[in-house]
Amino acid sequence: MNAIIKHRDKTYEVEPGLTVRDALIKIGLEPQLYLAVRDGKLVTEDQPLRENDRIKLVTIVTGG
């Protein structure tokens, strides 16, 4: 079963085993612009995705 990544109103399916960073690159998103959250906890970009993972992406907002 694939891992699911949700960002706003879009849902992406990716194969388990990819790191969060590699999965974001694969679906066309820049990893440095997002935080990944699994079960309410922050997931680092080097963490591998597991089967049935549900990852929510939060956009990083910077200001100056």
Annotation, overall tally of beta strands: 5
> What is the CATH class?
Alpha Beta
Rg, alpha carbons: 11 Å
Shape: globular
Range of strand content: 35-45%
How many domain regions? 1
If you average the pLDDT, what whole number results? 96
Oligomer: single chain
Structural class: mainly beta
CATH architecture: Roll
Write the layout of secondary structure elements.
Layout: E1 3-7, E2 10-14, H1 20-26, E3 34-38, E4 41-43, E5 54-59
Parallel strand pairs: 1-5
Antiparallel strand pairs: 1-2, 3-4, 3-5
List keywords for this structure.
5-stranded mixed sheet; 38% strand; globular; Ubiquitin-like (UB roll); 64 residues; mainly beta
Report on this model:
- Helices cover 11% and strands 38% of the residues.
- The longest helix is centred in the middle third of the chain and has 7 residues, at 20-26.
- A hairpin with a 2-residue loop joins strand 3 and strand 4 (41-43).
- A five-stranded mixed β-sheet has the order 2-1-5-3-4, with helices on one face.
- The chain has one helix at 20-26; strands at 3-7, 10-14, 34-38, 41-43, 54-59.
- It has a single domain, classed as Beta-grasp domain (Ubiquitin-like (UB roll)), CATH 3.10.20.
Provide a short characterization of the protein structure.
This protein is mainly beta and 64 residues long. It has one helix spanning 20-26, and strands at 3-7, 10-14, 34-38, 41-43, 54-59. It has a 5-stranded mixed β-sheet, with helices on one face.
